[in-house]
Design goal:
Elements (H helix, E strand, L loop, with lengths): L9 H9 L12 H6 L3 H23 L6 H10 L5 H12 L11 H4 L6 H14 L7 H9 L7 H10 L10 H6 L4 H13 L1 H40 L1
Helix pairs in contact: 3-4, 5-7, 9-12
Length: about 240
């Protein structure tokens, strides 16, 4: 038996949905909940609630059946960040043959492969519009810095985390290659270097949040100025 259309109110369902770890299991219990689950904005807010602004887009793309251009645009409008690293990784996986191998079955290799061409194109196009695509992948730059094979200046880290909106992606097989190394000294040395930089990563992720919040405040202030200016113009015209 389905729930009455008026009970509980949509506002209550909305709040319940946002705080359930796997709300899609609820869609089997009610036709109303199934219809409710199709709301793009609700999906965006759930992803942001579960994963935060730096990782909502990554986990949305991982849900290939759900991710489409409409959800992508709504996530951006709702505050999700689009890192250059995600754009680079998706472009490589969608538009080249480099990774078209049997190992794609591995979870870190299958990320982004199931989404539609239209959705992938929307992400890459927006990424190119926002910032130039560099030849060196941001994830590899970060990986080399983290494990001590390449140094980065503070200004370079600032650019990586703030301008490029970088967040470490849980895709890199480099952790596996180090952990499986037969040379215990190499393994311990690399891990020690990585662990010593964790606090610095947290610091720059916090700086990224502050940077984005400042940009939103500035954008909101600019919009208010434009609206006030348009009203003044209208009154003069009258």
């Amino acid at each position: 038996m389905d729930w009455p259309s008026h009970f509980p109110p949509d506002e209550i369902l909305f709040e319940i949905w946002l705080h359930v770890d796997d709300p899609w299991c609820l869609t089997w219990t009610s036709r109303r909940l199934y219809a409710f689950s199709k709301q793009t904005h609700l999906r965006s807010l759930w992803l942001l609630q579960q994963y935060g602004e730096p990782y909502a887009m990554f986990h949305a793309i991982a849900r290939s059946k759900m991710f489409d251009p409409e959800l992508f645009r709504d996530l951006l409008a709702s505050g999700a960040t689009l890192s250059l690293a995600i754009v680079q990784e998706l472009a490589k996986r969608q538009f080249s043959d480099v990774n078209n191998k049997p190992m794609m079955a591995l979870s870190y290799m299958s990320w982004g492969k199931g989404i539609s061409f239209e959705a992938a194109l929307a992400v890459v196009t927006e990424g190119r519009r926002r910032q130039a695509m560099t030849s060196r992948c941001d994830s590899l730059k970060y990986q080399d810095w983290l494990f001590g094979t390449q140094e980065m200046l503070e200004s370079q880290l600032e650019e990586l985390f703030c301008k490029h909106q970088f967040a470490p992606l849980p895709l890199l097989p480099h952790w596996q290659s180090i952990s499986q190394s037969e040379d215990s000294w190499v393994k311990e040395s690399a891990m020690d270097k990585a662990y010593s930089k964790i606090r610095l990563v947290v610091k720059y992720m916090q700086r990224q949040r502050e940077y984005n919040a400042a940009k939103r405040r500035l954008a909101g202030s600019s919009e208010s100025t434009v609206r006030v200016g348009s009203r003044q113009t209208s009154s003069r015209d009258l």
